[in-house]
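User: Some background: our group keeps a shared notebook of sequences we're curious about, and every so often someone picks one and asks for a predicted structure to add to the entry. Today it's my turn. The entry only has the sequence so far, pasted here. Could you supply the structure so I can complete it?
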Amino acid sequence: MTSKTFRFNEAAKLYVENLEILRQIREETYHNITEFSDNLISALQNELGDEHLCQKNTNMQGAYFGAEIRYLWIGMDNKEWDKVASVYFVVPILGKITNDILLANVFDVVKHNRIKFIVNYIGVPKKLHDSLASLALKEELGELISQKAGEFSIWIKFDQSDPITSASKKVAVLLKAIKAAQNSE
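Assistant: Of course. Here's the predicted structure to add to the notebook entry:
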């Protein structure tokens, strides 16, 4: 009878030895992304000036538990938020993320200097759908990722040297385009 010798490889040992460091890096990254989004919303309000920026945050459930969706729109009462076109993006909630892979787009803020925004117009009157859907084709608003009934996803890229200012300017243009489309109907 022969016995085989087993040894854990160096990668496995290195991973186990550095679990605490990896956890700290992960939490700091999530904190940094959340801080970026908070600062972006503040800068966006300044960028919009007299326009009233509305916001609603909701926590995700199920497989995406641990993430928060931040909805933004201009000028409508917060009680009517589901009847107006809005944009939204996802940020991690510190200490609650259960699956990094499902939130891979969140890391694009750090890795690729871009934010994924979803333009949602599911609850708006049907006559507005075509106007809002046509915004997906306007390259100056962002790079189209996907489009389906009632929403489209775009990447909004920002300048790494001044991420908050450059991102807030581009998101303001998107929000103003949405408002203009709604006001034209």
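Suggested note for the entry: The longest helix spans residues 19-48. The mean pLDDT is 83.
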